[in-house]
Design brief:
Pfam families: DUF397 (PF04149). This protein has about 70 residues and is of the alpha+beta class. The protein contains one helix and four strands; from the N terminus they run ββββα. It has one domain.
Length: about 70
Amino acid sequence: MSTAPAPHPVEWVKSSYSNGGGGSCVEWAPAFASTGAVPVRDSKNPNGPALVFPASSWSSFISAVRGGQLRRA
């Protein structure tokens, strides 16, 4: 793990599945997808940690969400 600052700002994109009421806001950094890693964070805590998923796992997750295979409890 590197503690060096990123050479340029990272663009974070809010998920289209996040609600507009300020809750359940998920953001991801698409520029990293070509590296094989997809960082994901809580938009309510932009200085907090980000989870990093393998791009193939993230793609499978997004396909499952779009296909309605994941439901809220």
